[in-house]
Amino acid sequence: MGSDLFCGGGGFVLINCYPVYCSRFGKYLVDCFECFAPICVGIVGPKQRASGAGDEFLMILPDTGLKDAEMVARRLHNLIGGKLLKVEKGEFQVRTCIGVAGTESNDEDVYDLDRLLDMAGKAMYKAKEAGRFEVVVYREDEVEE
Question: What domains lie within the chain, and their CATH numbers?
Fold first, then answer.
């Protein structure tokens, strides 16, 4: 089974909202994607793709170069990060860890979707390691394999 191919330039934004769960109860109290989908649509418009559950979600930004994807991620980070969520059990402050990967330009090349998703995931985990309130853009020379 081969990996999917992605045509055209594109950015991927993986977002991990932490902590929107209560470790005392060991379960998520809110769904990060449900809480922040309206914010995402407000930034990138309804034609972009986003999906997720629990504490992570993925945004796919077709025809968006890496620099523009980073700008979207930083804007989301500023709007979401530090936000207080009120739930039945109390109030929680959201910490965002955002990983960004994509192509350098809006060109018509074909890219390996699995590789781009892996790159965005590595960037997100590097953001987690950096303090759980970061945006990290995947660059071959900066993110360890």
Answer: 7-137 (3.30.70.270)
